[in-house]
Specification:
The protein has 227 residues and is mainly alpha-helical. It has one domain (53-220): Clc chloride channel, CATH 1.10.3080. The chain has helices spanning 2-11, 24-85, 96-124, 133-140, 151-166, 174-192, 202-220. Helix 6 (174-192) packs antiparallel against helix 7. It starts with a helix and ends in a 7-residue tail after the last helix. 24% of the residues are buried. It is a multi-pass membrane protein. GO terms for molecular function: voltage-gated chloride channel activity. It is found in: Membrane. Pfam families: Voltage_CLC. The chain crosses the membrane at residues 52-76, 96-124, 145-165.
Length: 227
């Protein structure tokens, strides 16, 4: 009887059970990874938009500065033209006295404006003296030049180059304007870095200076694509 029961027990089929379980730790990890991926993509998009907006405002500000400089140059050259033609009311234009006085007037005005430009740059910011391109190249290579991109240097450079070009001497504007654009980029980076720490990065700032030089070339030659 016992053997029969054991056989019967051995022949009986065991019931099988299938349990579905959820590992909440794995699900939470997947959700966190997905959230982090979305946040990373959003941060990248913000950085791209911030770069484009920064370059847009840099171009607009440099364009207005260029227009301001051109207006100053035009007005100063108009004053020079009136100064040279002033003896016309007292002397015959074909006389030697008119030519001599006109030449003296032109020389005094030209030398006076050049001297005013040099004096203004000397007392406002000595760093504004010169072309500016060698200094910008040095800064982009990583060398720190104190006060070469400050606000006082920007003011000194703007009015200095306007007076120098308004005097009529044959000098170019591209080099000084590269320095001006780099000053604008530095000041804008300082302001934006308070809200976006990425612009406090030295590499990002060097890229901004390179873009500023391109903006300067485009503004000087009125070629927005050629910069």
């Amino acid at each position: 009887m016992l053997q029969q029961k054991e056989l019967q027990t051995g022949n009986t089929k065991k019931a099988s059970f299938h349990l579905d379980t959820t590992d909440y730790a794995i699900e939470k990890l997947k959700k966190n990874n997905c959230t982090k991926s979305i946040e990373r993509n959003a941060d990248k998009l913000k950085e791209i938009l911030a770069d484009w907006l920064f370059l847009l405002f840099l171009g607009v500000v440099c364009a207005f500065i260029n227009i301001f400089i051109e207006m100053l140059i035009f007005n100063l050259q108009e004053v020079q033209r009136l100064t040279v033609s002033l003896p016309f009311f007292h002397f015959n234009p074909s006389s030697w006295a008119f030519l001599v006085i006109s030449f003296i007037s032109w020389s005094i005005y030209t030398v006076g404006l050049v001297a005013a430009s040099a004096t203004f740059a000397h007392y406002v910011s000595v760093q504004a003296i010169g072309s500016g391109i060698p200094e910008i190249k040095t800064i982009i290579r990583g060398v720190v030049l104190k006060n070469y991109l400050s606000f006082s240097t920007l003011i000194s450079k703007v009015f200095g180059i306007a007076m120098a070009l308004g005097s009529g001497i044959p000098i170019g504007k591209m080099g000084p304007f590269c320095h001006i654009a780099a000053c604008v980029a530095n000041l804008m980076s300082n302001m934006v870095s308070r809200f976006s720490p990425a612009f406090a990065n030295k590499t990002r700032r060097m890229e901004a200076f390179s873009a500023a030089c391109a903006v300067a070339v485009a503004s000087t030659f009125s070629a927005p694509i050629g910069g």
